[in-house]
Design a protein that fits this description.
heterodimer; A: 344 residues; alpha/beta; Dihydrodipicolinate Reductase, domain 2; 2 domains; 9-stranded mixed β-sheet; 8-stranded mixed β-sheet; 17 strands; 34% strand; B: 494 residues; Rossmann fold; 6-stranded parallel β-sheet; 22% strand
């Protein structure tokens, strides 16, 4: 499919990108250049270039980065690289200078592996961390040399039909490297996890954590990975061990006995319902259609309490916003991933 | 102050003359910095007239000059440019040169001052210097001066450097000898001393108590281009480390000089070279990585391996990349490694000095959730000359996440005027008799003594360390990363 480059900016020679960026900035003195990190998006196909450009433009007011949008078409017959430069700007307040971040877009025709490292390394703004969002379908297209340069690697394991293999490949490539793995499937349950954890903050409920016997999770089609990671989170944080698994259930063993977990697929939000049976307490967290809140009901003998908590967004730009704003390491994700791996 | 003089360029047909020297002299003239009584005389073998040479120079100056070419300024400058055809070994050519210089002195008031610029192959230096001396061109009239600028390489090892220095010493006194290293003419290289000694916040930290390591990098994206025959005999260690990088290391590591006179500064620099820990062959095997570029991809295009380059030996063992871990054995730098790397066909071009400070104590923040990074002061030599300081900063929000941010200073945007090219500054200094930014004989010879140990370990040993390959367009061989990793460190990203 031909590449629609109308939104990518000024076409330039790859060798002249630095020179063209300088021109871009010197042409207009009413702009301030803002860069705190390098943000590279690697994606496959021409449509993805356009979609990601739209996405990048949404962050200009909230995150200051040099954007490197690198697309590739491994099936292309010719072997060349096209390049564009552009600036994404916003006006922080009336009368102020525009604050702008630059965007370098590259499109690799043919196999990207041998050309990606140089194209990426050469365009990084020096001395700034690199966040790379891998949006390709096959991690095999990534040159291993690139992985070691990445400070934060963002990916969305829900986009992979069989995520176990690519996740394993990423973990294998990075080994014990300092790269922070940021799985948007994990980000999708950030508020849900926080909300569920809060339900056990009350001293009278804290002991119920050790009495969990059943967890039932309802997830949207294609979101099994998200549900599995949520289960992995319980398992890792509470020290459970998996010891039996069927198509839609898994049995863990904790200090106080077995915990049976059920996964059910149903149309709706990514995670539309979580039910935790913990002895005398039952906690139900529900994401109803058309709402941005979680309704949580804590049912215990003699009373029932309802909580309204913010729900996770399914919109990709909001998930990314959450991830870019965060920082820090995702230690718990790695533990949850290890526990969830049999379910993936 | 630059004084009136005649500048004689030996190697008038050479690439350096066309791309660097004449554009530099033209820009000095256009900016009004070249003394009004100054002539440029090109000395080369090929027969051509003044007019022909001027026309050739005009064409390349228009391309290479930092300020472009102004017709009026060029015409004024070109009227002071002459061509003198002669073989370098022909005594008669020097006799006629002397007469031409005398005539120009009389005509334009250059007062008998002469600046000879040797922009030729080092093999020609001895012969040219001998002819200059035979013709008496090195003897200035009372009240005048005769100086020589010598381009690197200053020899190929300690013995040849000493031989070259002897040739120079027979013709010119050390105070009239200007060994040029264009790196030192760059604005940021000159700024190193200002940054260190004119700011009270850095110097107290500039020692082993606070500095964890120093990294000096000179990276090129280009391959050997047309320099294959020269480069294949030289290699990165001789071509870059012995000269440019040792000079930068000296400016970074030296003690404050007593004053800013040339000898006071150079005394301190040479102390650093003397303090460089001499390596044993085992040290070389452990602490020096040599590499050669293989085929790869640059800017999306395939590029050939070094051994497939024009006029390069297909079995060449010449290094196009070197990474070294050095130690300056004095009180200030005890235990602080200096990592130096230089290479061709790397991912990105640039030169910088990065001083990495020790990490702050982690009692408050040193959890895995908020790892601390080290502060880094980076002096960028090229491109985009400037200084940046990396700090740790709290990410806005209710939780404590720490991320690095940097404060940046760019010469290009901060002062609103273009920095002069390195050659402009250095030629003016030579005209003024200020040798501060030029290498002194003992500096050069000491640097060669240090480098020779490494060269010998590579080329005169029965079991030399391996020559590591790296793909063009990357950041060098994996072994260079391992050199850092073994110390628990990483190369800085540029």
């Amino acid at each position: 499919m031909p590449l629609d480059s109308a939104t990518l900016g000024t076409p330039v020679e790859v060798a002249n990108i630095s020179k063209e960026l300088k021109k871009l900035w010197s042409a207009d003195q009413t702009r301030t250049r803002a860069t705190l990190f390098n943000f590279a998006i690697v994606c496959q196909g021409g449509d993805a270039m356009r979609d990601n450009t739209d996405l990048l433009a949404r962050f200009v007011g909230t995150h200051a980065f040099r954007a490197l949008l690198i697309g590739f078409d491994p099936a292309a017959e010719d072997s060349k690289v096209d390049a564009w430069v552009n600036a994404n700007c916003y006006l922080p307040k009336a009368g102020a200078k525009h604050v702008c971040s630059e965007q370098v877009s590259l499109f690799i025709h043919g196999d990207p592996r041998s050309r990606l490292p140089n194209l990426l390394f050469a365009q990084l703004d020096y001395d700034l961390p690199l966040t790379l969002w891998w949006r390709g379908t096959d991690v095999g297209h990534m040159n291993p040399e690139v992985w070691r340069w990445v400070d934060r690697l963002i990916f969305d394991s829900t986009a992979w039909p069989a995520p176990r293999e690519p996740i394993s490949a990423i973990r294998h490539q990075l080994g014990t490297h300092r790269t922070v793995l940021c799985d948007l499937a994990w980000t999708r349950t950030l508020h849900l996890r926080q909300s569920l954890a809060q339900m056990f903050d009350l001293p009278e409920h804290a002991a119920a954590l050790n009495s969990l016997t059943t967890i039932r999770i309802t997830h949207a089609p294609g979101a099994r990975t998200v549900a599995a990671l949520l289960l992995g989170w319980f398992s890792a944080q509470l020290g459970w061990y998996a010891h039996g698994q069927g198509a839609s259930h898994i049995r863990f063993t904790g200090d106080k006995g077995d915990i049976l977990c059920h996964l059910t697929e149903a149309p709706g939000a990514t995670i539309s319902r979580v039910v935790l049976d913990a002895g005398a307490i039952t906690i139900t967290a529900e994401r109803r259609p058309e709402t941005t809140f979680l309704h949580i009901v804590v049912a215990e003998p003699g009373r029932s309490t309802e909580h309204i908590m913010p729900a996770d967004s399914d919109a990709i730009h909001q998930l990314l916003d959450e991830e870019l704003a965060g920082g820090g390491r995702h230690r718990v994700y790695l533990k949850a991933l290890a526990a969830a791996e049999p379910l993936l | 102050m630059p004084q009136p003089c005649n500048v004689v360029i030996f190697g008038a047909s050479g690439d350096l003359t066309f791309r660097k020297l004449i554009p530099a002299l033209y820009n000095l003239a256009a900016d009004g910095d070249l003394p009004s009584a100054a002539n440029i005389i090109g000395f080369a073998r090929r027969e051509k007239t003044d007019e022909t040479w001027r026309a050739e120079l005009k064409e390349t100056t228009a391309k290479c000059s930092r300020s472009g070419l102004n017709e009026e300024a060029w015409n004024g400058f070109a009227s002071r440019v002459y061509y003198h055809p002669s073989e370098f070994g022909d005594a008669a050519g020097y006799a006629t040169l002397k007469k031409k210089l005398d005539d120009l002195d009389a005509k334009s008031g250059t007062r008998g001052n002469r600046l000879f610029y040797l922009s030729v192959s080092p093999a020609e230096y001895g012969g040219i210097l001998a002819q200059i001396a035979s013709a008496g061109l090195n003897q200035a009239a009372p009240g005048a001066w005769a100086r020589v600028i010598v381009e690197k390489p200053f020899g190929t090892d300690f013995d040849t450097a000493r031989e070259l220095n002897e040739h120079i010493a027979h013709a010119f006194a050390e105070r009239d000898t200007f060994r040029i290293d264009h790196y030192l003419g760059k604005e940021t290289a000159q700024n190193i001393m200002v940054l260190r000694f004119a700011n009270s916040i850095f110097e107290p930290l500039w020692n082993h108590r606070y500095v964890d390591n120093v990294q000096i990098t000179s990276a090129e994206t280009l391959g050997v281009e047309a320099r294959g025959p020269y480069y294949d005999k030289s290699g990165a260690l001789r071509d870059m480390v012995q000269s440019h990088l040792v000079q930068l290391l000296c400016l970074t590591a030296m003690e404050p000089p007593t004053d800013l006179t040339a000898d006071a500064v150079r005394d301190e620099k040479v102390k650093v070279v003397r303090a460089l820990r001499r390596m044993t062959p085992a040290d070389v095997a452990r602490d020096v990585i040599r590499g050669q570029y293989a085929a790869g991809s640059m800017g999306g295009k395939e590029v050939p391996a070094y051994r497939a380059e024009d006029r390069v030996n297909p079995q060449s063992m010449t290094e196009t990349y070197v990474a070294l871990k050095l130690h300056v054995d004095n009180w200030r730098w005890h235990g602080v490694p200096f990592y130096v790397r230089v290479g061709k066909r790397l991912a990105k071009g640039g030169g910088e000095i990065a001083v990495q400070f020790k990490e702050a104590p982690g009692v408050l923040f040193n959890s895995e959730e908020a790892p601390l990074g080290a502060n880094q002061l980076v002096i960028r030599i090229q491109p985009d000359e400037g200084v940046s300081l990396r700090l740790q900063c709290k990410v806005p929000g209710s939780t404590l996440h720490i991320e690095p941010v940097k404060m940046d200073f760019h010469y290009g945007t901060s002062f609103g005027r273009q920095s002069p090219e390195a050659y402009e500054r250095l030629i003016l200094d030579a005209m003024s008799g200020d040798a501060t930014l030029f290498a002194r004989r003992d500096e050069v010879e000491q640097a060669w003594q240090f480098v020779d140990v490494i060269e010998n370990a590579w080329h005169k040993s029965d079991s030399p360390p391996p020559l590591c390959n790296y793909a063009s367009g990357t950041w060098g061989p994996k072994e260079a990363d391992d050199l850092m990793r073994l110390d628990g460190r990483e190369w800085r990203r540029m």
